[in-house]
Amino acid sequence: MEAVITEIEHLKKSFGNNNVLKDINLKIAKGENLVVFGKSGSGKSVLIKCLVGLIEPDEGKVIVLGKDISELKNEELNILRKKVGFLFQSAALYDSMTVRENLEFPLRDLKSKPKEEIDALVIEALKNVGLEDAIDKMPSELSGGMRKRVGLARTLILKPEIILYDEPTTGLDPITSKEISNLILEVQKKYNTASIIITHDVECARITANRIIILKDGTSAAEGTFDELSESTDESVRAFFK
Amino acid sequence: MVVDEKIKNKIVSEEITESSENPYLKKLKDFFEEISSLTLFALRFFKEVVRPPYEFKEFVKQSYLIGYKSFPLVAITGLIMGLVLTIQSRPTLAQFGAESWLPAMVAVSIIREIGPVITALIFAGKVGSGIGAELASMKVTEQIDAMEVSGTNPFKYLVVTRILSATIMLPVLVVAADAISLYGAYIGVNLEGDVSFHLFFLQVFEKLSFADVFPAIIKTFFFGFMIALLSCYKGFNANKGTEGVGQAANSAVVLASLSIFIIDMIAVQLTNLFI
Question: What is the predicted ipTM?
Answer without folding.
Answer: 0.88
